[in-house]
């Protein structure tokens, strides 16, 4: 059926009533929550813990082709490390594995390895969900301190539907996409951005639902898990190892619930909270972004960067000036998206990368938009495209109401001066999309699982880990948490210590001491 505005409004109203989303406090996760352990606690293990199966080498592989240099060029990653090999491939997945919707989808994959990586080593599958393309996450990881893992086994990233190099989704016209990117700052109804973005959400939802029908309900985490399962079957193996970062944790939990017997290792890096409403998840992200910005500012000062003695204050003023329209067509929302893309970039956070970004911001402050322009466009393509919109909204089970967003626009704008106001308005981006049911958690899953995180994570925040370990332990899985004391996302892309913990776990499924800390 075609979605009409009247039908969509009725559907949205019904969803808001049945989910009980009002203007009150955000709902908290209806799962067990594990409280953080202190560093140095005994390793998590149990005498009755079943022996984990072993990941297997593919018997029938994909048709890989070298894409090292093109990938590094596309992502502006510079020169590939010596001996690094990136290979790209596609494979066919069903739109709906249950057969409810016919047709196939082209899913993209990337394999990273060194020329010295053993060819008979079982690969580690990577998903970063809808935060950014999994292939981009892998390329960024491979550009940094990837030795502990890639020297022992290849990593294979699988792009989510419509993201990265998977079959594209182009469902938004420029008359909707650009105002959403700018949160209607330059629109006639700019005086009420919450209502303006809510209206744009209705237009975007109608457009994308029409574009995707009859498969518009197949872009959630559960179907993304089916795509990973199809890769396992194509490889003709019984067991795989899986690494999920950020919103990819939803896919990992869906895979554990549906196909847990086929998991030999599971690593969850910097997950968002389980079954938390949109307000709660956004607040966690904003806290992480503000913490990461503070850490960036401290490092910027230590490098003598061009933002001066107080980079945080300088950036706050830039966002405020963008909101006042002082930078032409560059909106406050687009600038904040660029900041989030930089802070959550999986590429190595080298000193030159820090100072170059600071220089672009300093130039903007002088009225020169030239240096920041390519970064704004890159951020939009990476974390704010049509595929990200569809997948992100498909995973939203408890959207916010306009009244709640209006309230938080002021509250968060004061509490979180750089990211808060934009985050509150952004709650409306998925407000018209039909809300999904709360994600079902694994009921029985006994595989020892490693959970990573960063002290200052701008993509997921730091408060989701206890809800994920709680859900896993409730299903019977022993867990251990390793926290990197730095800033960025995901931890495994930036910390050699975190990578070594992952590499050790992949070898024998033994967990490190719960509460292990990795230095910044």
Automatic annotation (TrEMBL):
**Looking at the record's lineage, which domain of life comes first?**
Bacteria
Q: Where is the AB hydrolase-1 domain?
A: 154-276
Lineage, highest ranks first: Bacteria, Bacillati, Actinomycetota, Actinomycetes, Mycobacteriales
Its name, as the record gives it, is: Alpha/beta fold hydrolase
One Pfam family from the record: Abhydrolase_4
Keywords carried by this UniProt record: Hydrolase, Signal
Q: Which InterPro entries match?
A: AB_hydrolase_1, AB_hydrolase_fold, Pept_S33_TAP-like_C
From the UniProt entry, list the residue stretches annotated as the region Disordered: 25-62
Q: Which organism is it from?
A: Nocardia uniformis
Question: GO molecular function terms here?
Answer: hydrolase activity
Q: Which residues form the signal peptide?
A: 1-23
Per its UniProt record, what Gene3D superfamilies does this chain match?
Answer: alpha/beta hydrolase
KW Hydrolase (keyword) present: yes
Instruction: Decide whether keyword Signal is in the record.
Output: yes
Q: Which residues form the Peptidase S33 tripeptidyl aminopeptidase-like C-terminal domain?
A: 417-518
């Amino acid at each position: 059926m075609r979605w009409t505005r009247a039908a969509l409004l009725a559907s949205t109203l019904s969803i808001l009533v049945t989910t009980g989303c009002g203007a009150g406090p955000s709902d908290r996760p209806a799962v067990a929550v594990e409280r953080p352990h202190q560093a140095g606690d005994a390793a998590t293990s149990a005498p009755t813990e079943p022996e984990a199966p072993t990941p297997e080498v593919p018997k029938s592989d994909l048709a890989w082709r070298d894409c090292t240099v093109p990938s590094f060029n596309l992502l502006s990653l510079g020169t590939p490390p010596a001996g690094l090999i990136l290979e790209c491939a596609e494979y066919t997945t069903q739109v709906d594995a249950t057969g409810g919707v016919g047709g196939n989808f082209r899913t993209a994959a990337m394999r990273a390895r060194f020329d010295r990586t053993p060819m008979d080593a079982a690969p580690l599958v990577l998903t970063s969900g809808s935060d950014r393309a999994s292939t981009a996450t892998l390329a960024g990881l491979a550009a940094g301190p990837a030795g502990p893992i890639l020297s022992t086994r290849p990593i294979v990233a699988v792009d989510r539907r419509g993201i990265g190099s998977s079959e594209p989704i182009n469902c938004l016209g420029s008359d909707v996409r650009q105002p959403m990117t700018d949160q209607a700052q330059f629109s006639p109804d700019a005086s009420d951005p919450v209502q303006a973005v809510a209206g744009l959400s209705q237009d975007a939802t109608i457009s994308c639902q029409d574009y995707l029908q009859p498969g518009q309900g197949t872009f959630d985490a559960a179907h993304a898990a089916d795509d990973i399962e199809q890769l396992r079957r194509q490889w003709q193996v019984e067991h795989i190892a899986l690494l999920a970062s950020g919103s990819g944790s939803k896919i990992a939990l869906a895979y554990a619930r549906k196909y847990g017997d086929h998991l030999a290792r599971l690593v969850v890096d910097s997950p968002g909270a389980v079954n938390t409403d949109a307000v709660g998840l956004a607040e966690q992200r904003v806290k992480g972004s503000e913490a990461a910005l503070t850490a960036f500012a401290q490092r910027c000062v230590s490098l003598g960067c061009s933002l001066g003695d107080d980079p945080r204050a300088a950036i706050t003023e830039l966002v405020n000036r963008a909101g006042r329209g002082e930078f032409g067509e560059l909106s406050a929302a687009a600038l904040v998206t660029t900041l989030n893309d930089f802070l959550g970039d999986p590429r190595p956070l080298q000193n030159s990368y820090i100072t170059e970004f600071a220089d672009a911001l300093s130039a903007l402050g002088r009225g020169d938009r030239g240096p920041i322009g390519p970064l704004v466009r890159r951020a939009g393509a990476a974390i704010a495209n049509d595929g990200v919109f569809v997948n992100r909204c498909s995973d939203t089970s408890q959207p916010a109401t306009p009244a709640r967003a209006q309230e938080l626009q002021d509250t968060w704008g004061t509490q979180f001066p750089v990211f808060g106001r934009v985050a509150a308005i952004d709650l409306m981006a998925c407000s018209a999309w039909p809300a999904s049911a709360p994600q079902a958690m694994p009921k029985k899953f006994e595989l020892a699982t490693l959970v990573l995180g960063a002290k200052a994570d701008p993509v997921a925040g730091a408060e989701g880990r206890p809800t994920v370990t709680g859900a896993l332990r409730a299903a019977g899985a022993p867990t251990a948490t390793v926290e990197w004391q730095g800033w960025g996302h995901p931890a495994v892309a930036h910390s050699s210590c975190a990578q070594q913990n992952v590499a050790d776990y992949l070898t024998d499924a033994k967990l490190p001491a719960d509460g292990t800390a990795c230095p910044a």
